[in-house]
Design goal:
By secondary structure, this protein is an alpha+beta fold. About 20% of the residues lie in helices and about 15% in strands. The protein contains 4 helices and 7 strands, in the order E-H-H-E-E-E-H-E-H-E-E. The strands form 2 sheets. It has a 5-stranded mixed sheet. Strands 1-2 form a two-stranded antiparallel ribbon. A hairpin with a 5-residue loop joins strand 3 and strand 4.
Length: about 180
């Protein structure tokens, strides 16, 4: 079992952090055990948690889940990818080594995962929300079929969809930087 404690060390007001710090300074063994029990009560033990982007690293459980899509890179190379229903297009690209950056890790804070969606499949995507539209406004080479890859979640209707990567994206790196998945 894996026990994950998630809190910020800089948080001075967090009662859990104060309990941890207090329990570390105690000398009395019985009191220390009591405090440790209080701390464990507030955190859950989990097995195999999925972190941001981990779902895309799992293979489909059945053929009913499979969604085949094609990425077209900046040089025109076609990369056929076997995804599954529920996959995020950006993380799926990272899994298969396709240069779709995603600097903000799907938090809608950049436009580096900008892609062009094949016209035939635009109707299968939900309309972009206001935050996605705001980030797309910052994208270079914007077109009518532009979307952020981090906001495209695969469904069965997207079978055969082609996503084209633009010639460049806007980021703080200098020209010529080759992005790598985090």
């Amino acid at each position: 079992m894996l026990l994950r404690l998630a809190f910020r060390n800089s948080c001075k007001t967090c009662k859990y952090l104060r309990l941890v710090n207090y329990s570390q300074t105690l000398h009395s063994t019985t009191r220390h055990i009591k405090i440790q029990r209080q701390i464990k009560r507030h955190f859950r033990a989990v097995t195999g948690p999925l972190f941001h982007g981990d779902y895309e690293w799992q293979d489909p459980k059945s053929e009913d889940e499979v969604v085949n899509i094609v990425y077209i890179d900046k040089k025109g190379g076609r990369h056929k990818v076997r995804g599954k229903v529920g996959d995020n297009v950006m993380y799926l690209a990272h899994r298969h080594g396709i240069e779709l950056e995603g600097a903000c890790e799907a938090s809608l804070a950049c436009s580096t995962c900008h892609v062009y969606v094949q016209e035939d499949h635009l109707d299968h995507l939900p309309e972009p929300d206001e935050k996605e539209d705001d980030m797309l406004d910052m994208a270079t080479f914007l077109k009518d079929n532009s979307r952020l890859g981090c906001q495209i979640i695969l469904t069965k209707e997207m079978e055969g969809m082609e996503l084209t990567l633009p010639q460049a994206t806007r980021n703080f790196y200098v020209d010529g930087h080759v992005p790598e998945a985090h």
